[in-house]
Amino acid sequence: MNGFDGMWGALAEVGRDRHTGGYRRDAWSEPDLALREWFAEEADRRGLSRYEDRNGNQWAWWGDPSAAPGVVTGSHLDSVRDGGAFDGPLGVVSAFAAVDELRARGVTTPPRPIGVVCFSDEEGARFGVPCVGSRLLTGVLDPARAAGLTDDAGDTLAEVLRRAGRDPSGLGRDDETLRRIGVFVELHVEQGRGLVETGAPVGVASAIWPHGRWRLDFAGRADHAGTTALADRDDPMLPYARAVLAAREIAERRGAVATFGRVRVAPGSANAIPSLVRAWLDARAPEEETVRGLVAELSAACPAEVVCESWTPVVEFDAVLRDRVAAVAGGLRGRFTGEPEILPGNVAEPSRAGGDWTEGRRDTPGGAPVLPTGAGHDAGVLAGAGVPSAMLFVRNPTGVSHSPEEFAEREDCHSGVTALTAVLEDLCGLLV
Amino acid sequence: MNGFDGMWGALAEVGRDRHTGGYRRDAWSEPDLALREWFAEEADRRGLSRYEDRNGNQWAWWGDPSAAPGVVTGSHLDSVRDGGAFDGPLGVVSAFAAVDELRARGVTTPPRPIGVVCFSDEEGARFGVPCVGSRLLTGVLDPARAAGLTDDAGDTLAEVLRRAGRDPSGLGRDDETLRRIGVFVELHVEQGRGLVETGAPVGVASAIWPHGRWRLDFAGRADHAGTTALADRDDPMLPYARAVLAAREIAERRGAVATFGRVRVAPGSANAIPSLVRAWLDARAPEEETVRGLVAELSAACPAEVVCESWTPVVEFDAVLRDRVAAVAGGLRGRFTGEPEILPGNVAEPSRAGGDWTEGRRDTPGGAPVLPTGAGHDAGVLAGAGVPSAMLFVRNPTGVSHSPEEFAEREDCHSGVTALTAVLEDLCGLLV
User: Fold this and answer.
1) Which of A98, B42, B216, B265 is 20 to 30 A from A347, alpha carbon to alpha carbon?
2) Which domain holds residue A289?
3) What is the ipTM of this complex?
């Protein structure tokens, strides 16, 4: 059996770009198919009953989930382009390792079935929409819209699925699979430095910040870069530059984050004044009104057409489950025979995070730190669809994510497995 | 015979994009080959002896240029992407129209041969290097380097030439063709508003400003746009934005122009803080030291790696020829039987243009206005190679160029033909 380190090593080179050192694991690409094979092999090694659901999500069950809803853990194996090794795979590898740990402790049949899941296309790197697998499963994403999504080569998801031997006509909400999920716990590398400041290797998610994406079109007049006097120019690069600086200033003042990570310039020649600068703003904050206020203030301050391309409301994870997971993950074992003793009344009110992730924490004495995140996750999709869900975070010393430099200490990863094992034990009723 | 208006109408739809209304006449593309056919037909209609030289430039001669160097006029037919109708074609159409006008005045054999030229790939839209035809002709561009230039599809110029039935082994300096050019006069639409301010429909070039292109690399650290606290970010979009604003301020203060028309962002996802913003600065001014000073000041002020990708020194057109052309184009006909009477001593010193193109004018009383330009031209390449060269500009009411909105009034175009005809008459010795 491959332990954590063995599994980790087996994934290290799959889809890794030799030049950037980052991973390119687009959904349904060759590396993604190799990762699916790997998942199946690890499930088979453990004698778990596995299947792939109609939406491409992979499941491996210990026990029979058709008898009673189970305790599910896992994450995803695809990556953003030039992403790191941890975002996604850490949750899947830790899930298998936790199963191994429970067996090593002598558990032969868990009181409730335990499921390991790998959600399909979480990052949306190929088709532009994140969490495709969990959104289709829960019915949040329209299957016809999903089937028609296109990648850079112009191929639709439906075509890509067919080429991979899958049947796109099966896409869509899957109640049979959903009914098997009694509770979902996703372990994930932290993507900020909240845990670094607490000194704890493992934390628990309180909420996923609301976030949105806006397209800003700055229109100008194409003209010759050499012959057009400055006074005669209508150069949209200037208001775009002012908007970049304004967005940062407004975000700082309002306690939000704002990013311009994608820009298109037309006609895009070095010797032509642009006719159009199109830029995408990603904005997030603890409260929805903070994000909306930021965008309203920026829109008023700059001469751009502003179109909202996506909006995801705040996700507050189930408070009772959250505190129970935090207590167990922090080492407060065996205290939960019935209702959790740690109740929401014990935690502080959320404060404005102001771009400082530690401010939003609501800690349980003796438990793992509780903190919000600005990143979307499958656990957030499931929580939004009414599935009791929680997240464990593993400390990230630099906070860097979506980058080849993404990192977690091996010792912290092992602590993550230990915490996840304890949480599975608790949620299965093994802790008394 | 097609007159000016007929020729103009024949070109109107060649390579025109229906959506943008702009022209896409890349060198050696289908539209470019159609334009070459058009040139050949117009030459044949007039009984001119035509040939294409080893570098793809088309020539049509009235009289025998092997007997004595001739008076050459013309321009180019290719375009920037989504360019206007006038940049290039106006000079070629006016050249044929001027030949017609001379014949209408009864000239049967000009005392010196008159040549009409269409230079190949002036804009460099396809292979990234402008004035390929004139630079190869004069030996300024290394033929091996030219042959290896690649387009967006990865095809080399050599392959593209072969596909078009041309022999790339013939590329390079062509002394036989050069010897035929006694003097070159290029008529071109103005690309600024200098003539608008003088009230004259036609002007003459004094100089082409020195200009350069610099690549600025702003490096940062890729990171998650949602989870990375503002304080933990190394986002290169912010120093890029400050550089855009600084370049404008420095250009205004120093009397230059500066443009950021092309930007690439890596990884380029809306939800990722960029690891790299790569931007290209185009900077020009009347004096070389002004351009270099602008770039030095900007480089010192921003945390970017700055690499000079191209540098073109100032081109001062032959002063005697310039004033002679200005006098004739302005209507001072028949005064030049020997040396021009208008000598350089009659003109004011060039002043700093400060982005105001009219400041650099050196006018001859009674002659056409004389003004500098910030745009490169085949006439500048020839002048740099020692060929006596001059340029006529036709008024552009908005100054807009390299854009579908580029425009000149038909009446001003006709004035351009009249001026060019007079200049050809003079330079051929017909004016006494």
Assistant:
1) A98
2) 211-311
3) 0.79
